[in-house]
UniProtKB/TrEMBL annotation:
The lineage of its organism: Bacteria, Bacillati, Bacillota, Bacilli, Bacillales. GO terms for biological process: DNA-templated DNA replication. Gene3D superfamilies: P-loop containing nucleotide triphosphate hydrolases. This is DNA polymerase III, delta prime subunit. Pfam families: DNA_pol3_delta2. InterPro entries: DNA_pol_HolB, DNA_Rep/Repair_Clamp_Loader, P-loop_NTPase. One of its GO terms (molecular function) is DNA-directed DNA polymerase activity. NCBIfam families: holB (TIGR00678), PRK08058.1 (NF005972). It comes from Salimicrobium halophilum.
Length: 329
């Protein structure tokens, strides 16, 4: 994300507030960006740092080409300090080191910026040390705290920051975001229906997990159509080895639910809502087996199976029961 205009497409309120503050020369000395993973907090922090350091800003937009912008992109800007958890937490020593760095004059100018990622993971001592740092702000110092859980940050720190909420992406914006990352339209359609978390969607694409999950969902419905007596064998020998724990099984059931939702959309004449956009022929064959009423019944069974997984019922038993129920739909 290189432009404020891009950020405004996904986070219009947060982007506009930051742009207005810069234009009016009313930047806060400390910001707290909070929201789910994948909502652009880290990218917004980097963009704000560029805007503050870039000598060629035009109407809030950094040039992206100067030495300052390039060094921020490479992580080598001497006056931008990025603090991340050391292990499971951000420790007091990390904040002390940060404070020591800020006692020196900026190498390039008087401006200094620091970003604390996962700020909710600061220890009590680290939080208290940061609070003292925030209580004596320098006009040329900007703090940016990033968190998924603002309530876990002590109130005295929150009260000294301008808080900006980063909202989850809606499905269409999520699809557009994924396609900008080079994801195919077909995969972006399904992933945007599964999650509004950009990072989570990209993580699902790592390796072959998502491609295999997508294939197994369709194969299961094909077995139920043409070889129902082999469905349990398929579940035990192919489905369960891939969806081997509760979390991945929940995700697999989510994908299965989307497949049945697509059949329902087709039955209702809402083809524009379909997310498995490449599998039209397979979907039409499946619809010869599953009527609109049967599709609705199957979706109810899938939701019931998800509840059972959440209640810690053994995953294999849940999936075997669901398979038998889908056979009878």
């Amino acid at each position: 994300m290189e432009r404020w205009g891009q950020l405004k497409e996904t986070q219009p309120l947060a982007a506009q507030m930051l742009m207005n503050s810069y234009k009016r020369d009313r930047m806060a000395h400390a910001y707290l960006f909070y929201g789910h993973r994948g909502t652009g907090k880290r990218e917004a922090a980097r963009l704000l740092a560029k805007t503050l350091f870039c000598p060629n800003v035009i109407d809030t937009e950094p040039c992206q080409e100067c030495r300052e912008c390039r060094r921020i992109d490479s992580g080598n800007h001497p006056d931008l300090h990025w603090v991340k958890p050391d292990g499971a937490s951000i420790k007091k020593e990390q904040i002390l080191t940060l404070q020591k760095e800020f006692t020196y004059t900026g190498l390039e100018s008087d401006r200094k910026v620091y970003v604390i990622e996962a700020a909710d993971l600061m220890t009590v001592n680290a939080s208290n040390r940061l609070l003292k740092f925030l209580e004596e702000p320098s006009r040329e110092t900007t703090a940016i705290l990033l968190t998924e859980n603002s309530e876990a940050i002590i109130q005295t720190i929150r009260s000294r920051c301008q808080q900006l909420a980063f909202q989850p992406l809606n499905q269409e914006k999520m699809k557009h975001f994924l396609m900008e990352q080079g994801i195919s339209t077909s995969n972006a359609s399904i992933l945007s229906a599964l999650t509004n978390n950009g990072e989570e969607a990209l993580e699902m694409l790592e390796g072959d997990w998502f491609a295999n999950a997508r294939k197994l969902v369709i194969q299961l419905t094909e077995v139920l159509q043409s070889k129902p007596n082999e469905a349990l064998l398929f579940v035990n020998h192919q489905w369960m080895p891939h969806f081997s724990d509760r979390d991945t099984l929940q995700r697999g059931l989510d994908v299965l639910m989307l497949w049945f939702k697509d059949m329902l959309h087709e039955h209702l004449g809402r083809e524009e809502a379909v997310v498995f956009i490449q599998e039209k022929e397979k979907r039409e064959r499946a619809m010869m087996r599953f009527s609109r009423t049967q599709v609705t019944a199957c979706m109810a069974r899938i939701m019931e199976a998800k509840r059972h997984i959440h209640q810690n019922v053994h995953p294999t038993l849940v999936m075997e029961q669901l398979t038998l129920q889908l056979q009878r739909c």
